[in-house]
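This follows on from our talk about sequence and fold. I would like you to pick a protein and set down its sequence and fold. Go ahead and set the record down below:
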Amino acid sequence: MDGILNILKPPGMTSHDVVAFIRRLMDGGKTGHTGTLDPGAAGVLPVCVGRATRVIQFLPGDKEYRVEITFGRATSTGDAFGEVVYRGDAAALTSGALEEALRAFMGEIMQVPPMTSAVRHQGKKLYELARQGIEVKRQPRRVHIYSLRLVRMDRTGTPHPRALVDVACSAGTYIRALCTDLGQLLGCGAYMSFLLRTRAGVFSLDEALTLEEVQEFARQGRLSGKLVSLEQALEHLPPIYVRPGAVDRVKSGSPLYWPGVATAPDFLQEGQLVRLCAGRAVLAVARSVVDPERPGYYQFKPVRVLV
């Protein structure tokens, strides 16, 4: 089987645990997820199966979350599982002040990866160093926050009010770091008390399958019908349709030259990722480059052959 399962990860499992669960149902076939979700978090976790594992890096990386933020405290890990490292009082925090603070994080921002992340430092993942009690200096990374919406605020007037916030952001954004930075800006401290991923690329929460549902579909022999195809998953890439005589060339990983193109979008940019198609099948993901022998025309160099 080849395709992508839209899994609803429950809290308490690691993303690796979910992948291992799916792999057992697939009798040990190739599986991999498209982006780690914290063990304590829940929500959308796309799991690629079979040939779909080859396209993980090409899938849309934008994410959407609903996060619960608790104010008046900060923790060592930025979530509910760390030690309290700061105690404040957020009784004076209002929804208006919170919304104003949220606006400061809109757009392109620099964010320091938390020590609990999988970012590598000198070959080791940060969370591995954190488990040894080691903290290292991390370089800020550029991320993009598309929207921040305050859903509601509870326990206002108490030292530790909570808020639900919807976040839409680019790949690589750490929501716990966003919560920590928000608490610092407000001067009262804050941490991520719960996280729900509601969307990952084209995969949404309302279409996600529980592990129990996946197991039952596998028992009934119906799991293949729940897979999102490679063609659907790569719909965000412009399609280049290949003439029949050039299909074998693409399959071998050779560049596709303009005479081998049947149809292509009117507007392309140099260096743009595209999908090379034969009918409904995606043969490869390729990159457009200017053909040095035919100025004004592109050739398409496969970066990942899928057949």
Summary: The first strand starts at residue 3 and ends at 9. Residues 119 and 183 are 23 Å apart (CA to CA).
